[in-house]
Here is the input.
Amino acid sequence: MKKTLFFMMILAVLATGCKNNKKSKSLNYSDSDPISMVLQGNHQIAASSDYDISYSAINSDPHIEVITVSGSGNIYGKNVGNAKVSLSNGYEEMTVDVNVALFTQPTFEFGCSSERIRALYGRPYNSGYNPEGKLVYQYTGSQGYSYACGEMDFFFNNGAYEESDVYIRPSVSYLLNNYLTENFNHYADINDTIPISETQDTIITLSVYKYKQDENIICGKRLALNQWNEILLFYFKNDPEKTLDNSLKMRPRSSKFLY
Here is the structure.
């Protein structure tokens, strides 16, 4: 009996050793390369291994920490810029590029369908009609689209995307100004009359920009006058046969479009 137990113990030890020997040394990465994320957003790296994976952030500029990465592989976008993440399981290692952007900007595919918007940004958080009868799809930062954006509103007319609004937190206004300088040409500053109640209006400066790659794409910037004091950006494609002033006057003046 004792001999039988002894041999069974030996077999168990051998079986355990065989299982350990079957562990793969491969580091399996199933995420994108580069990884794109937004400022102060989080991204969990999709990687697996039979051995523990260690992660480390590689910031090219030692004075600017673009990203941090946790021991479980969760990347945090600390500043706008480019960085890398190193992965290692003790046998294999690799590096992945990470790009941190200010915010997820609307597509410039004006005229595309609502199905195309859903394919690009996922399903809307809410939907409805604005006072002009245009179908609105609303996306919010709480759904993971952007930290810097309070919300993204897409406007449709007869099923075609016509314009959109993005609400930017004032704490990143300097990054927003860099974005506008790099991608747009400043056109004019005009006084914009905004209703703040049913009986009272206020005047706010509206800065108008033209997209460098297509001057018919217009970006307007002004305060949103909401509870977070965000900056409102709106995008639309101007009809060359219409004056820009008339196109701007036709836009809804409320800082919120869903009722």
